[in-house]
Amino acid sequence: MPTPHLLHRTLWLVALWALGSSMSFAQTASKSDQTHIGRTIRVAENEQVGEVTCIACSIYVRGQVAGDVTTVGGSIFIEGQGQIAGDVTTVGGNIRLDSTSKIAGDVTAVGGEIRRAPGAQISGDITSIGGGVWLPLVLLAPFVFLGLLVWLIVWLIQRARRPAVPASA
Fold first, then answer.
1. How wide is the angle at C-alpha 33 spanned by C-alphas 27 and 34, nearest 5°?
2. What is the pLDDT of residues 131-165, one digit of tens each?
3. 10-22: per-residue pLDDT in tens?
4. Contact assessment for residue 45 and residue 80, using Cβ atoms and an 8 Å cutoff
5. What is the pLDDT of residues 83-127, one digit of tens each?
6. Which of 53, 63, 55 minimizes the C-alpha distance to 88?
7. Euclidean distance between CA atoms 46 and 51, whole angstroms
8. CA–CA separation, 70 vs 90, rounded Å?
9. Burial class of residue 109 in the structure, from the number of CB atoms within 10 Å of its CB (0-12 exposed, 13-18 middle, 19+ buried)
10. Which of 109, 139, 140, 149 is the one with CA 20 to 30 A from 129?
11. Is the distance from CB of 124 to CB of 95 less than 8 angstroms?
12. Going by C-beta distance under 8 Å and a sequence separation of 6 or more, which residues neighbour residue 165?
């Protein structure tokens, strides 16, 4: 039976492989889509892009985004004449909208704030779940669930492999 350490390491490798595969697919899906980890994304004034996704970095939009804008562990800044046709979502970051920015979809901030200048246009719903308590819950809950699931499987296997002890007379 594999040791818990080996099982833990294998699960991490599978998760990293799945994340890398999905990001490679997302980058090849459309040349105008931008997906980065740890590197700030800037959509310049007169620039048009598709989906914009950033993990552990921030996004600055002055141009047009045809799809959604999403960050995890970073903030989103819609500046100048920035326009977004889809939704704007951040987990663990803030959203700032200048007075001339336009968003056709929903705006959501989990574990952060939405700062909206007068005149900023949002056609969809606005949701802000601020505070530091929600961020660990949202980010850690899936890992806790998977950890408990792995623990249960290991416990069941160990229980099934125990030799039966005869009752003494």
1. 80
2. 666 666 667 788 888 999 999 999 999 888 877 77
3. 545 445 555 555 5
4. yes
5. 999 999 998 889 999 999 999 999 998 888 899 999 999 999 998
6. 53
7. 16
8. 6
9. buried
10. 149
11. no
12. none
Please compute Rg for the chain using Cα positions: 22
Amino acid at 38: G
Domain boundaries, the chain: 31-131
Residues, the chain:
169
Which one-letter amino acid corresponds to residue 130? G
Say if residue 162 is exposed, middle or buried (CB neighbours under 10 Å; 0-12, 13-18, 19+).
Answer: exposed
List b or e across 25-40, with b for residues whose CB sees 16 or more CB atoms inside 10 angstroms: eeeeeeeebbbbeeee
What is the DSSP secondary structure assignment for residue 3, as one 8-state letter? -
85 sits in the region (left: phi over 0; alpha: psi -120 to 50; else beta) called: alpha
Q: Is pLDDT above 70 for 33?
A: yes
DSSP state of 14: H
